[in-house]
Amino acid sequence: MLVVPGSRQHALVTAERVAKCGEGKVSLPRWRVFPDGERYVKLEEDVRGQRVLIVQSAEPPQAEALTEILLLLDAVSRADRVALLLPYLPYARQDREFLPGEAVSIRALLKAFSSLGAETLIVAEAHSERALSYFPGNVIHLKPLRFMAKRGEWRDVAVISPDAGGVDRAKQVAEVLGAPLWCVEKRRDRYTGEIEVGVPPGSLEGRAALVVDDVLSTGGTVAKVARALKERGARRVEVMVVHHLGLEGSVDRVLEVADRIVASNTLPPKDPRVQYVDITEVLCEGVLQWARGDLNPRPPGYQPGAPPS
Ligand code: R5P
């Protein structure tokens, strides 16, 4: 297996880690940025007859990371088999047309990756199964939250999902911890992006709460939920997210009201106040699954964009 990373430091670090577990070899391509900002890539190895794993880290600015993926996919087009490991799948939150005339952004990206030859997509905790349904090839959807829950100390917590769409992922944590699971009602104004959160059911008087979400971007969602939980009597509020995008001010916003943030290292660790859990082991499971050819073909009658059965 030849592991080919994007130019970002975290893509290289991730590529080296997964290459070790899959007995692969990292092959660094040569990158250049032209004076006008356009990118260029040249492979340094012949990929004919090889299995190639492209690895990219999609922290902001995402557009640059995505351009590199397109160029790499084109460059490896003579390989025998091609998979793309994107621990954080960007644009997945726009997984439907919420307002008439909107692009379904993730559909556009996944169609482009597939049409350029990516046969398998390996991602960790994508925003929704619907988002992944737009990829016509094989999808390996890794779920690091169980792994993360086992590596922390959480005593007597209630696990909280910030919205109905996140219940399945919060449930994974609740099961590991043997904790009750509650869902807060979140509403987003689709024109302004503003969110409102309702109060969780039941009393949290004197309890600790663990808010579980897929991504921490501005921190606005978990900060609002944490505030509502404290107003409801929660003694402590902790936050567990898979992807920390590292936006300026996001950690301050959350820690103003919450007591701890735990995230994984799908993206580059940015803030010493966040506890980052190394999920290389989970990424390796996905890479090894692909290397064994143990794939999940689409079921008969599969419809892109249809809710999973
Ligand atoms: C939304 O549906 C997602 O699951 C996250 O809750 C949201 O995108 C987090 O964004 P922010 O940190 O900006 O509130």
Protein topology:
Blueprint: E1 2-5, H1 9-21, E2 25-26, E3 30-33, E4 39-42, E5 51-55, H2 62-75, E6 81-86, H3 105-115, E7 120-124, H4 129-133, E8 138-142, H5 145-150, E9 157-161, H6 167-177, E10 181-183, E11 186-188, E12 195-197, E13 208-216, H7 220-231, E14 236-244, H8 250-255, E15 260-264, E16 274-277, H9 280-292
Helix pairs in contact: 1-9
The site of ribose-5-phosphate (R5P) has 12 residues, from strand 13 and helix 7.
Overall description:
With 309 residues, this protein is an alpha/beta fold. It has 2 domains: 2-143 and 282-292, Rossmann fold (3-Layer(aba) Sandwich), CATH 3.40.50; 145-278, Rossmann fold. The protein has helices at residues 9-21, 62-75, 105-115, 129-133, 145-150, 167-177, 220-231, 250-255, 280-292; strands at 2-5, 25-26, 30-33, 39-42, 51-55, 81-86, 120-124, 138-142, 157-161, 181-183, 186-188, 195-197, 208-216, 236-244, 260-264, 274-277. A 6-stranded parallel sheet has the order 2-1-5-6-7-8, sandwiched between helices. A 6-stranded parallel sheet has the order 10-9-13-14-15-16, sandwiched between helices. The two termini are 34 Å apart. Residues 93, 162, 166, 213-221 line the site of ribose-5-phosphate.
